[in-house]
UniProtKB/TrEMBL annotation:
One Pfam family hit: p450
Annotated catalysed reactions: (5Z,8Z,11Z,14Z)-eicosatetraenoate + reduced [NADPH--hemoprotein reductase] + O2 = 20-hydroxy-(5Z,8Z,11Z,14Z)-eicosatetraenoate + oxidized [NADPH--hemoprotein reductase] + H2O + H(+); (5Z,8Z,11Z,14Z)-eicosatetraenoate + reduced [NADPH--hemoprotein reductase] + O2 = 19-hydroxy-(5Z,8Z,11Z,14Z)-eicosatetraenoate + oxidized [NADPH--hemoprotein reductase] + H2O + H(+); N-[(5Z,8Z,11Z,14Z)-eicosatetraenoyl]-serotonin + reduced [NADPH--hemoprotein reductase] + O2 = 2-oxo-N-[(5Z,8Z,11Z,14Z)-eicosatetraenoyl]-serotonin + oxidized [NADPH--hemoprotein reductase] + H2O + H(+); an omega-methyl-long-chain fatty acid + reduced [NADPH--hemoprotein reductase] + O2 = an omega-hydroxy-long-chain fatty acid + oxidized [NADPH--hemoprotein reductase] + H2O + H(+)
GO cellular component: endoplasmic reticulum membrane; mitochondrial inner membrane
Protein name: Cytochrome P450 2U1
Keywords, sorted A to Z: Endoplasmic reticulum, Heme, Iron, Lipid metabolism, Membrane, Metal-binding, Microsome, Mitochondrion, Mitochondrion inner membrane, Monooxygenase, Oxidoreductase, Transmembrane, Transmembrane helix
SUPFAM superfamilies: Cytochrome P450 (SSF48264)
Gene Ontology BP term (one): organic acid metabolic process
Domain of life: Eukaryota
Gene name as annotated: CYP2U1
InterPro entries in the record: Cyt_P450, Cyt_P450_CS, Cyt_P450_E_grp-I, Cyt_P450_sf, Cytochrome_P450_fam2
Length: 501
């Protein structure tokens, strides 16, 4: 009831009439289903099935219950938008890998991943030549600036050291590491995109992070305003939606200002960062009237790199530290392994991963148990297609339920238990599982997966080499079940960091 009273406070006769019209439109949309769609639960007028997803751990328990009734492929509605839900590894792999030509597009509806609801960038661009061209360029540029290479390790370790110094300032006092962690991870993206890092107390850096948090932390009303635009006539919905749009504008303006500054000092013989690389490519193609390397696309892609690469990785690291303070025996095993491999003076490197199976298994279990984007960015069908006997029209949204794979008891017994040993074989070696699909799969697999894995390993090992993390004395244990605020994240918690000798 609270949600409804918050969504619909006292309103006048005009708004009542508008809501009545909305009900009629939504009913017509829901009744006009194409034949032979996958089955699915009945929805309510206006909102469809969206309200049901407000229940349980990020709505995933609801998806699981629907899957038991309707199978691994079923239909739901987010407002008037029809969505096909894929559950389980077999269905997801069959769609995204075996039928990639049909399931690698994006829905027509634009969400917060477009800075202006017009420019699509890489993340929102439908499957086709433009998307292939832009994604290929982005992957090559990220590699040029060190992703997957030893040069990137130095930038990540620099941030790990800066983060460690900030932690030391707490001098054994209880604190929340959330903001510090975001500072460190965001600075890695800044070094790739802007060619610089910021001090943690820098005002423009704080504004940048505030804007990112404002976009990613959107509430349910802002979500409804996106999928059902007519709901924006309601004051409380309009306010939430406008707040997100303001944060989008601030983030975009910051990026455009950086691009303008780069243009002033641009040297084609000295490509300093991703912005320079894009400027160079756009100049190479300036005689091509069909070039997609425009100023708008430039800003949109950088915008998406920040959203995709900041909060997701920093939140995963917070999950990792939460599990360490809740499972001190595992933390101690990881530290013993770090000490045996690195010794007292050596910093971690990606070449050490193969020598650290316990650490690798622990991070794999974090990614499995707490996927920060548990249902992936919406896919869409590229054409009219038949999948498992069902007819799915072109441009139909497709939700990939990553949670249903990572938490499948048939794949991972006792799936809600934090147990890194599930990735260790009898010989004590780490065994990677392709059934952990936190970064999705197929052609739309996360562009930043390699960078994220580097950051997770290097920052996590650096912190545990230097500190032991504990709960403040007398503090009740935080829940291992998270909350959905834009992404899936742990409940707010404080910790103590004791320096190790």
């Amino acid at each position: 009831m609270f949600f409804w009273s918050d969504m619909f406070p006292t309103f006048g006769s005009l708004q009542v009439i508008l809501l009545a019209v909305l009900c009629v439109i939504a009913t017509l949309v829901l009744c006009g289903r194409p034949r032979n769609l996958p089955p699915g639960p009945r929805g309510l007028p206006i909102v469809g099935n969206a309200l049901s997803l407000l229940k349980g751990v990020p709505g995933m328990s609801v998806y699981a219950n629907w899957s038991k009734k309707y199978g691994d492929v079923y239909t739901v509605y987010f407002g008037p938008m029809r969505v096909i839900v894929l559950n389980g590894y077999a269905a997801i792999h069959e769609a995204l890998v075996k039928n990639a030509e049909s399931f690698s597009s994006r829905p027509l509806a634009i969400d917060f991943l477009s800075p202006d609801e017009k420019t699509l960038g890489i993340v929102q661009e439908p499957f086709g030549p433009k998307w292939k061209d832009q994604r290929k360029f982005a992957i090559m540029s990220l590699r040029d600036f060190g992703v997957g290479k030893r040069s990137m390790e130095g930038k990540i370790l620099e941030e790990a050291r800066a983060l460690g110094e900030e932690i030391c300032k707490k001098d054994g006092r209880a604190f929340s590491i959330s903001q510090m962690m975001q500072n460190a991870v965001s600075n890695v993206i800044c070094s790739i995109v802007f060619g610089c890092r910021y001090e943690y107390d820098d005002t423009s850096f704080k504004d940048l992070l505030k804007s990112i948090n404002g976009v990613l932390g959107r509430n349910a009303k802002a979500f409804f305003a996106t999928v059902i635009p007519l709901l924006r006539v309601l004051p409380s919905v309009r306010k939430s939606y406008q707040d997100v749009k303001q944060y989008q504008a601030k983030l975009t303006n910051h990026i455009k200002e950086e691009i303008r500054e780069h243009e002033k000092t641009f040297d084609p013989n000295d490509i300093r960062d991703f912005i320079d690389a894009f400027l160079l490519e756009s100049k190479k193609r300036q005689t091509d009237q069909n070039s997609t390397f425009t100023e708008q696309e430039h800003a949109a892609i950088v915008y998406q790199l920040f959203l995709a690469g900041t909060d997701t990785t920093s939140t995963t690291l917070r999950w990792a530290l939460l599990y360490m303070i809740l499972h001190p025996d595992i933390q101690e095993k990881v530290q013993q392994e770090i000490d045996s491999v690195l010794g007292p003076n050596q910093e971690p490197s990606m070449v050490h991963r193969s020598q650290m199976p316990c650490t690798e298994a622990t991070l794999a279990e974090v990614l499995r148990l707490a996927p920060v984007v548990p249902s992936s960015v919406l896919h869409a069908t590229s054409n009219d297609t038949v999948f498992r006997g069902y007819s799915i029209p072109k441009n139909t949204a497709v939700l990939v339920n990553i949670w249903s794979v990572n938490h499948n008891p048939n794949l991972f017994p006792d799936p809600d238990k934090f147990d890194p040993t599930r990735f260790i074989n009898d010989a004590g070696k780490y065994v990677k599982s392709d059934k952990v699909i936190t970064f999705s799969m197929g052609r739309r697999v996360c562009l930043g997966e390699q960078l994220a894995r580097m950051e997770l390993f290097l920052i996590f090992t650096s912190l545990l080499k230097r500190f032991t993390f504990k709960l403040p004395e007398g503090t009740p244990k935080p829940s291992e079940k998270g909350i959905r605020q834009g992404i899936y994240q742990p409940v707010p918690f404080k910790l103590i960091a004791e320096q190790r000798e």
